[in-house]
Hints:
Layout: E1 4-13, H1 17-30, E2 37-43, H2 48-54, H3 60-69, E3 72-77, H4 91-96
Parallel strand pairs: 1-2, 1-3
Amino acid sequence: MASRVLRIGLIPGDGIGREVIPAGRRVLEALPSSFGLKxxxxxxxxxxxxxxxxxxxxxxRTVEVLKNECDGALFGAVSSPTKAVKGYSSxxxxxxxxxxxxxxxxx
Length: 107
């Protein structure tokens, strides 16, 4: 059986995401080839820590790669500041939710 290659964006984000995304990747990598799937992974940035470093909670590059180069994504977690921070809004609500298909997913 020929393998289908699925491109997966890995977005650890903040906090616990840095632990769960590598674990999720290992799970996908451990799937037996009898399922006919192979995975390619792309590391992407998002979250409050990314905002503090770059000024963007969800960089344009992350959105473009997800839209144009990925078949799916593993998303970890996004921290929220304890006080209002000028220019910060959650990347999940503002920019990621439109990327989630409304129809069912199938392989």
